[in-house]
């Protein structure tokens, strides 16, 4: 059920961003195992994407994880506060990734409730990339973790959505990306209450 390393090597990051909907993201920490069904993603297509941290081949200590083999976690701090999880895709040195934006709580609900101080059926517990990271206990220590190992991984439990069930929109919070700001590279499950922006 765990996605294989080969899955993440697909160079079509837009396809993977859609295909990851319905897959289940797991973490294992000292608190226990928690997981959520992925219901919202964004695709970032690498050095030619003005919204990508790797635009123009930019390479820093922060972005180094993006240049890893597909199947690596790229976790960075947004505004110095929120940890955001990206799934690195494609081959090594081709810095494409999928931002995981929202999940539906699935396993370890009591742990998630403790972390977020709210019930698991509350939209805000895991809606948005910062909230889902908090609910799953993801912090900067997860950066560069391999997604086929035992700390963070994604499983296929045969949850799938038809084309009519998947919404498509522009990515959020990237007005600086000029003509790439409005590209339709955000994918979400239309009827999920854990998706905040339609």
Q: What is the CATH topology classification name?
A: 3-methyladenine DNA Glycosylase, Chain A
Return the CATH class. Answer: Alpha Beta
Largest sheet: 8 strands, antiparallel
The H/E string reads HHEEEEEHHEEE
Number of strands: 8
Query: Do you know the CATH architecture?
Result: Roll
Residue share in helix = 10-25%
Uncertain parts:
none
What is the residue-averaged pLDDT?
96
Structural class: alpha+beta
Question: What's the overall geometry?
Answer: globular
Task: Summarize, please.
The protein is an alpha+beta fold and 198 residues long. The protein has a single domain (5-189), classed as 3-methyladenine DNA Glycosylase, Chain A, CATH 3.10.300.10. It has helices at residues 5-8, 13-19, 109-116, 129-136; strands at residues 24-29, 32-44, 73-78, 82-89, 96-107, 152-155, 166-169, 186-189.
List the helices and strands and how they pair.
Layout: H1 5-8, H2 13-19, E1 24-29, E2 32-44, E3 73-78, E4 82-89, E5 96-107, H3 109-116, H4 129-136, E6 152-155, E7 166-169, E8 186-189
Antiparallel strand pairs: 1-2, 1-6, 2-5, 2-8, 3-4, 4-5, 7-8
Helix pairs in contact: 3-4
Keywords: DNA damage, DNA repair, Hydrolase
Pfam family, one: Pur_DNA_glyco
GO molecular function: alkylbase DNA N-glycosylase activity; DNA binding
